[in-house]
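hey m, so remember when u said the tokens were messed up on ur end? i reran from scratch. heres the input so u can diff it against urs
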Amino acid sequence: MPTADERGRLEIPEDVARAENVPEDLDSSIVGPYTFPSLLRRRSVAIVALVGALLAVAGVAAGLPRGLLVMAGILV
């Protein structure tokens, strides 16, 4: 049965974790380097959002409802 330590975490004994096939990435005791998302990935998401905003503004200019300007503002 899981026990709580002084910080309120649940700890599962190793033999139970192995028997239940708990993946290692769910083990909070394993500490490893944290990697930030790459700048290229973050830039590509920003470009997609800006293109979506431009399409929304173009849609309003073409006669679609003005509510799309709210979406364009959110995307920017």
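this time it looks ok to me. The CA atoms of residues 60 and 66 lie 6 Å apart. if urs says something different then somethings off w ur setup not the seq
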